[in-house]
Specification:
The complex is a heterodimer of chains A (248) and B (485). Chain A is α/β, with parallel strands linked by helices. Chain A contains ten helices and twelve strands. In chain B, 24% of the residues lie in helices and 35% in strands. Chain B is built from twelve helices and 23 strands. In chain B, the strands form three sheets. In chain B, strands 5, 6, 8, 10, 11, 13, 15, 16, 18, 20 and 22 form an eleven-stranded mixed sheet that branches. In chain B, strands 4-3-7-9-12-14-17-19-21-23 form a ten-stranded mixed sheet. The chains are: A alpha/beta (248), B alpha/beta (485). Chains A and B meet through helix 2, strand 7 and helix 3 of A and helix 9 and helix 10 of B.
């Protein structure tokens, strides 16, 4: 579904990704682990198409198409979704309104009929309920005055409403207490399906207790230095990144 | 007003990005020769069949205007205006004394308003909104008059009010904005040709929104309309105005005067969606909008609320104000002003606190893009008798790009030690991370800007009647098309 080959990228002239090879088939959840500064978040931004993240080599094929040639919104239309590590505040923009506009933009671009306000409300309320959130969150402005946990949950809600084919979760566990972590993980797990791929970026193994990955990749200094099954995460937890760093 | 929104959307889909209301109507016009002197003033008055007192008033205004100089204190730049190089009266040719009913209105005119999304024809009337349509200098149609008359509300063109209700016009005309108030008000008083008149009798809550739609069509013609709204004791009215003009390379002058009078316990809510042609991307053409709007809260606990969404005009010079005379009177000013390309706006308000316990609120949102220059200019004056007067002012500026400007010029004068005046101001940019966040969810860059700008203007937009709020939201997004990327 997502195929990354020899991907290199730089930020402000500094090389951050130095040749990444990674393939995530539909139906699988892969985890990217690594210490701070290893390039984890950069990988997420490069895939989503953020300005200022310059691709210097390699290719990314998503559902058979050249992902890197697309604008950020075209990547969303193609089915890619990035859950932000630091979700952005949009003062004055109602959360429900934002979600409906996003959904309808996607549907328009895909040639599907738009959903009207009533249909949308029904849809979003069902999702909110399924995620154990409160309707009140829909009335607030996007991420404004949200706690860290609320922001992350809001990202999962967006994911649930937009139903992307592929989800990238960038440090979705950071800043969450154990209860919030469980709610977020339940939301993510509910979205696992044979048609959907996921890339879970995390610093800690903790999240992977709740979202059990099919594969784990270790990112160090812009390269994937090791790949393995879910048990690799436990090994890292025990030994830390130090040993790998020395080996690399 | 779903019809309006729908039309805007359709037109937007077709033309993408340019000014959507810039067409010209081919219609037979009656235009008087260019130039302005006492004879022109007499001619206008004669054309309207006005009584002697009104002609005298016009002439006094004209003489005052001749002694006055154009104001230069606003932060706007434009070449000198040659006041002799314009026509001061243009009207669609019609039967001697104007159309008696819609059936007599030139079908070409009706089509123009339909194109603008303002259907005037019986079968297409919008439920709950009465419309007065002013084409160039003349009111062409007012809808729902009979229904309003049942409750005693008068809503008609200014000319008709002069004919049918001369005692009301004579009593109130110029009592809030005297003919010698300022250069542009004096000019308007001398040559105004039409406008709207509203009278809400004692204790009546106007049963529907009243709306005037102004359209400039004729070339080289100034538009000078006058609006007068009187709300008697305990009355309530919500009034909306909208404006558009064809795209032309030359500049056209629009100098209107609006006077509002609210007596004891009366409320007037006045909303404007101003979308005069703003000029092209290089700054050619566009309307010069020099407007005097003022409301007098004469009565106890009276209230006047101005809401404006200013997206059009090459130059905007406009300060809708409140004179808070009655004890406990309330004045409000909510404004969103956008300047894109080479537009310049110098706009704000004056809140004059005269009576005790008077309160005022000012919320101004300025959005600058392209080479646009946006100035908020506001005066809060607390007079000696205005004990316990309160004012809260909030001025926020949003910048898009790095060649535009935002300026805030607040004047505060307090002559009563019990007064409490608060002023808050912020300036911000649309952040790159906000745009990226929206785009990563599937919105295009322009949709994202529209969404963020509408969020920024939320506090003001929520003051608009709902049908207009939808239109205004779309307008904000359209006005900023092409401002990023």
């Amino acid at each position: 579904m997502l195929k990354i080959e020899g991907l290199s990228a730089s930020v402000e002239g500094k090389a951050v990704l130095k040749g990444i090879d990674l393939e995530v088939p539909a139906g699988e959840v892969h985890a990217i682990m690594g210490p701070n500064g290893s390039g984890k978040s950069t990988l997420g931004y490069v895939l989503a198409g953020r300005e200022g993240y310059e691709v210097t080599g390699g290719s990314v094929t998503f559902r058979g198409e050249d992902l890197l040639a697309k604008e950020p919104e075209e990547r969303a239309v193609a089915g890619l979704f990035l859950a932000f590590q630091y979700p952005v505040e949009l003062p004055g923009v109602g959360n429900a309104n934002f979600l409906r506009q996003a959904l309808n933009s996607l549907r328009r671009a895909r040639g599907e009929p738009e959903v009207d306000a009533m249909q949308f409300l029904k849809l979003v309320r069902a999702k909110v309920k399924a995620l154990g959130m409160s309707d009140e969150m829909l009335k607030r402005y996007v991420n404004v005055g949200f706690s860290g946990g609320e922001k992350k949950r809001n990202e999962i809600l967006q994911m649930a409403v937009l139903e992307p084919a592929f989800c990238i979760l960038d440090e979705t566990d950071s800043g969450l207490d154990i209860d919030a972590l469980r709610i977020v993980a339940d939301g993510v797990n509910a979205l696992r399906s044979p048609e959907r791929g996921m890339l879970v970026i995390t610093h800690y193994q903790r999240l992977l207790d709740y979202i059990v990955p099919d594969r784990v990749h270790v990112l160090l200094d812009g390269r994937i230095v090791r790949s393995g099954g879910a048990e690799l995460a436990l090994e890292l937890e025990e030994k830390g990144y130090g040993e790998l760093q020395d080996a690399a | 007003m779903p019809a309006v929104a729908e039309t805007l959307e359709t037109v937007r889909d077709v033309t993408q990005g340019a000014y959507k209301w810039g067409f010209e109507t081919a219609i037979e016009q009656e235009v008087i020769p260019k130039g302005l002197d006492e004879d022109v003033v007499r001619l206008i008055s004669a054309k309207k069949g006005e009584p002697e007192w009104l002609l005298e008033w016009r002439l006094r205004a004209f003489r005052a205007w001749q002694t006055m100089a154009e104001p230069t204190w606003a932060a706007v730049k434009y070449p000198p205006i040659d006041y002799q190089d314009a026509h001061y009266y243009a009207a669609p040719k019609a039967k001697a004394d104007g159309p008696k009913s819609l059936a007599e209105v030139d079908p070409e005119l009706l089509r123009t308003y339909e194109k603008l999304g303002i259907p005037l024809k019986e079968q297409e009337r919008l439920a709950g909104v009465a419309v007065d349509a002013v084409f160039d200098s003349v009111s062409v149609a007012t809808t729902f008059k009979d229904k309003l008359a049942e409750v005693g509300v008068i809503f008609c063109s200014f000319s008709e009010a002069v004919r049918e209700h001369p005692e009301l016009v004579r009593r109130w005309l110029g009592t809030v904005v005297p003919y010698g108030d300022n250069f542009f008000a004096a000019l308007n008083s001398a040559v105004f040709s039409d406008g709207s008149f509203v009278y809400i009798p004692k204790g009546v809550r106007c049963p529907m929104e009243l709306s005037t739609y102004f359209r400039i069509n004729a070339r080289n013609t100034g538009q000078f309309e006058r609006t007068l709204i009187v709300a008697e004791e305990g009355a309530y009215v919500s009034y909306l105005e909208g404006c558009t003009a064809p795209m032309r390379d030359e500049n056209q002058l629009h100098a209107a005067v609006v006077e509002l009078i609210a007596l004891d316990e009366a409320t007037i809510k006045y909303s404007t969606v101003q979308n005069w042609y703003p000029g092209d991307a290089e700054g050619r053409g566009g309307i010069y909008n020099f407007v005097t709007k003022r409301g007098a809260c004469r009565g106890r606990n009276s209230k006047i609320s101005w809401t404006q969404v200013e997206t059009g005009s090459a130059i905007t010079w406009k300060y809708p104000s409140c004179i808070l005379q009655g004890e406990g009177a309330v004045g409000e000013f909510y404004s969103v002003a956008i300047t894109n390309n080479f537009q310049q706006a110098d706009t704000g308000t004056k809140m004059i606190h005269i009576g005790p316990n008077t309160r005022s609120t000012i919320v101004s949102k300025g959005i600058s893009a392209g080479h646009g220059q946006n100035t908020y200019r506001g005066l809060v004056r607390i007079m000696p008798r205005a004990r316990n007067a309160r004012n809260f002012t909030q001025c926020d500026s949003l910048l898009i790009g790095n060649q535009c400007g935002a300026h805030t010029v607040p004047y505060i004068e307090s002559r009563n030690p019990t007064a409490k005046v608060e002023h808050e101001a912020t300036t911000s940019r649309i952040a790159e991370d906000q745009l990226f966040y929206c785009r990563s969810r599937g919105l295009t860059e322009e949709e994202a800007v529209g969404l963020i700008v509408n969020g920024f203007a939320r506090e003001v937009l929520k003051e608009l009647p709902m049908e207009f709020a939808v239109e205004a939201q779309k307008l904000l997004a359209i006005s900023l098309e092409g401002s990023v990327g």
